[in-house]
Design goal:
The complex is a heterodimer of chains A (about 190) and B (about 600). Chain A has 8 helices and 6 strands, in the order βαβββαβααβαααα. Chain A is an alpha/beta fold and about 190 residues long. Chain A has one domain: 3-Layer(aba) Sandwich (Pyruvate-ferredoxin Oxidoreductase, domain 3), CATH 3.40.920.10. In chain A, strands 2-3-1-4-5-6 form a 6-stranded mixed beta sheet, sandwiched between helices. Chain A starts with a strand and ends with a helix. The model of chain A has no long low-confidence stretch (mean pLDDT about 95). The two termini of chain B are about 40 Å apart. In chain B, α18 links the parallel β17 and β18. The chains are: A alpha/beta (about 190), B alpha/beta (about 600). β2 of chain A pairs antiparallel with β8 of chain B. Bound molecules: thiamine diphosphate.
């Protein structure tokens, strides 16, 4: 129907989905697209499940991505990929970080972190798994995991033509620019 | 210049461009960032202030308007309840300098205690209302609202919803216009005594007739023709969802000026289409008025009035189509929000939760999480400021029936200053043995760390006198007041026992900063700027999980090894786990600084 593309970033409060959403949407804007982005504030930031939704195309109406609509779902945490999987479009792609953050019921021993999630995801969707945490750690800072995932996303969505390095420079502290540029390259190379 | 802005950023920009000189608010999701952004400007450009509560914020904005300046007050939907008293009456007086009230509603309850539809307030107070559908409109409508406010001498409501406040879309920057101050004139309409208000009510009805005419002609309400089969009337986020679902298969009457509605325009539009759909989130606000005007339409007979809308909900309701989803055969464990590692509220609730025959009336703030597992302490919570006063009513009733229960009222520092002081006054005045606990974490934490009268700074960063809670409470005549560090478990336990032994009003102030707070110099002096991270001695750990029952997210219980481990990236050294461990298996060996 429309040419609008939907990118859904999901994770846990504090994982840096907001920064990726910001770099992504500013880059798309600079490339001439109409863009809308939604993010979650408030209560959910206290260790809850968070999403950042970016929609772009010629003309975008709804600011939110609905069930069955995401062209790509990038999960910064493994269990979140499962939680948000109903939002993936049939035939859409997933990039999943093989990285676990146990939630409160798991921490207190009321539940176990479920096993076999990556297999279950692969069985139903075009899923690429990367270990962004390990990759960022190898580059010197595990926090750059979000930009590793961003690199993978850009490659998968065939958005490599946009000048992302300058967007990264504009949006991260000077001391972290080099690290994040390397993380971005590593993420692109990983998929 | 073009930029992606959230609705809130756009509203703040709109206020600056349109020459607002006074902006006041009390924080509340999804409205908070409007004033946070305005607060980054210098006082020479705009006076931007946190008020103790929404009523006060609106009243000060009313003062600014009467003085002749352009004024803005911002609040979340339930904040308008608090501000309803001045609102309903100022609607009679009317504005001098333009006054815009931002009401940020929260359909879907992303961060709220109810999902009331504040469009009703516009009709109730008989004030004009604008509803933006994206950030550009949010910015432009601030200026439009101020102009309408001045032209018709009315306060104007700019009603947004979470999806408008918190999503980004493209905004074209405009020029900043220095708007000249209107002269202050002593006028009868600002002095609401019965004889004057009676007359003002007649005048208000005349203004409404003029506003209804304006609504018919303003470009804020416009038609997009695509065909004559389906015509859609929609405003705000619902308009975007309608466009998403119906695309060019329907024509739209896009409503930007939504009270009074352009009923003639709607009627003419309805007559030209085969079917009229009124697509709106929450209540049938437009639909009821449209039906009352004798226009047939489809609306809440199909579209739910609960929860927020989305393209899926609209498509399901009106087209009967379901989304085509991927179904993964696995289940994710829930991820509820939790008190942060090192949160001072944890030490308080851990001890309070152990008491028997008590009822805990909580209040709104991060400490609302004190009712969730594993702490399971708090019983109830109604609205901001209600903790102590609801506790009072509970206690009076238990006592009346001779039921052996003690009631605790639990409230945060910001909420105490908001409306909690009045609630405590109730206890002080009518003398119930309620134990009021004021959780002073030195900041307004829940909404993202806004300053308040007790934190020592204004919104625009000026250091100010710290209002101390202890002296305020004592001034009410409450004799039994203690301040305790909630991280100190022995002291916390002893203090609760002290209060329970009293048969008179008592107050416990727990005083320790929010674990995420950026310490001020005063904080560093009072609380120190170093902490010791905790570590578990695996040999000594017997796997009893007592530490885990504090609910600290830095603790990891390994089911196979039957040992607790502490995640160093999360531990901020509150030492609660260390104190509750029955085997002394935890020590504070690591180092960290604020
Ligand atoms: C009438 C009203 N205004 C604003 C809010 C938004 N709100 C919820 S909690 C909160 C702040 C609570 O701060 P405090 O009492 O200091 O507790 P803390 O979160 O710091 O523990 C605010 C502003 C609300 N829910 N209701």
């Amino acid at each position: 129907m429309s040419d609008v593309k939907n990118i859904l970033l999901v994770g846990v409060g504090g994982q840096g989905t907001i920064l990726v959403g910001k770099i992504l949407s500013n880059g798309l804007l600079a490339a001439g697209f109409d863009v809308k982005m939604s993010e979650v504030h408030g209560m959910a930031q206290r260790g809850g499940s968070v999403s950042n939704q970016v929609r772009y195309g010629k003309e975008v109406f709804s600011p939110i991505i609905d069930k069955g609509q995401a062209d790509i779902l990038v999960a910064f945490e493994t269990m979140e990929a499962v939680r948000w999987s109903p939002f993936l479009k049939k035939g859409g792609q997933m990039v999943v970080n093989d990285y676990r953050i146990p939630s409160a019921p798991i921490l207190t021993g009321q539940a176990d972190y479920p096993e076999g999630l990556l297999e279950a995801l692969k069985a139903k969707a075009d899923t690429t798994v990367i270990k962004a945490g390990d990759m960022a750690e190898a580059l010197g800072n595990p926090k750059a995991m979000n930009i590793v995932l961003f690199g993978a996303l850009v490659k998968k969505m065939q958005l490599s033509d946009i000048d992302w390095p300058s967007q990264i420079r504009d949006n991260v502290k000077p001391a972290f620019v080099d690290l994040n540029l390397k993380a971005f390259q590593a993420g692109q190379a990983a998929v | 210049m073009k930029k992606l802005l959230t609705g809130n950023e756009a509203i703040a920009l709109g206020a600056i461009e349109a020459g607002v000189v006074y902006a006041g608010a009390y924080p509340g999701t999804p409205s908070t960032e409007i004033l946070e952004i305005l607060g980054t400007h210098k006082r020479a450009e705009i006076v931007a202030e946190w008020a103790p509560n929404e009523k006060v914020a609106l009243e000060s904005a009313i003062g600014a308007s009467i003085a002749g300046g352009r004024a803005l007050a911002a609040m979340k939907h339930v904040g308008v309840n608090v501000a309803a008293d001045p609102l309903m009456s100022f609607a009679y007086s009317g504005a001098n300098g333009g006054l815009v009230l931002i009401s940020a509603d929260d359909p879907g309850l992303h961060s709220s205690q109810n999902e009331q539809d504040n469009r009703q307030y516009a009709k109730f107070a008989k004030m004009p209302m604008l509803e933006p559908a994206d950030s550009q409109e949010a910015k432009d409508m601030v200026r439009a609202a101020l102009e309408i406010s001045e032209q018709f001498q009315r306060p104007v409501m700019l009603r947004t919803t979470t999806r408008i406040n918190h999503s980004k879309s493209i905004v074209e920057f405009g020029d900043i216009t220095k708007h000249p101050k209107k002269p202050y004139e002593k006028a009868y309409r600002f002095d609401l005594v019965p004889a004057i208000s009676k007359r003002l009510h007649y005048e208000l009805e005349d203004w409404l007739v003029k506003l209804a005419e304006y609504s018919e002609t303003t470009p804020l309400n416009y038609i997009q023709w695509n065909g004559k089969k389906i015509g859609i009337v929609a405003a705000g986020a619902a308009y975007q969802y309608a466009r998403e679902v119906f695309g060019t298969k329907a024509s739209y009457l896009k409503i930007g000026f939504s009270y009074p509605l352009p009923l003639k325009k709607i009627k003419a539009f309805a007559e030209q289409v085969d079917a009229l759909y009124v697509i709106e989130e929450l209540e049938p606000f437009m639909e009821e008025q449209i039906r009352a005007a004798g226009i047939t339409c489809v609306g809440k007979d199909k579209i739910p009035n609960t929860d927020e809308l989305s393209p899926t909900v609209v498509a399901r309701a009106l087209l009967g189509v379901e989304p085509d989803m991927v179904e993964v055969e696995a289940e994710a464990v829930g991820r509820p929000p939790t008190l942060c590692a090192g949160c001072p509220h944890r030490g308080f609730f851990y001890q309070l939760g152990k008491l028997k025959d008590v009822v805990i009336a909580g209040d709104i703030g991060c400490y609302g999480l004190g009712g969730a597992p594993p702490l399971n302490a708090k019983d109830l919570c109604i609205c901001m400021g209600s903790g102590p006063s609801v506790a009072h009513g509970l206690q009076e009733t238990f006592d009346f029936f001779g039921e052996n229960k003690r009631v605790f009222g639990v409230i945060g520092d910001s909420t105490f200053f908001h409306t909690g002081m009045n609630s405590l006054l109730q206890i002080a005045y009518n003398k119930s043995p309620v134990v009021t606990c004021i959780l002073d974490n030195r900041i307004t934490a829940m909404t993202g760390h806004q300053e308040n009268p007790g934190s020592g700074f204004t919104l625009q960063g000026d250091p100010v006198n710290i209002v101390e809670i202890g002296p305020v409470v004592r001034a009410f005549g409450i004799q039994h007041v203690r301040t305790v560090n909630p991280l100190n478990q022995a002291a916390m336990k002893e203090t609760l026992a002290w209060a329970l032994a009293l048969n008179e009003p008592s107050v416990i102030i727990t005083r320790w900063p929010c674990a995420l707070k950026k310490y001020s110099e005063a904080d560093k002096k009072e609380f120190g700027d170093h902490f010791h991270q905790c570590v578990v001695d695996a040999e000594a750990c017997v796997g009893c999980r007592t530490c885990v029952r504090t609910g600290c997210p830095a603790l990891r219980f390994d089911k196979t090894a039957k040992k607790t481990r502490i995640e160093p990236s999360q531990c901020v050294g509150c030492e609660i786990c260390l104190q509750v461990c029955p085997k002394q298996a935890i020590s504070a060996a690591g180092k960290g600084s604020k």
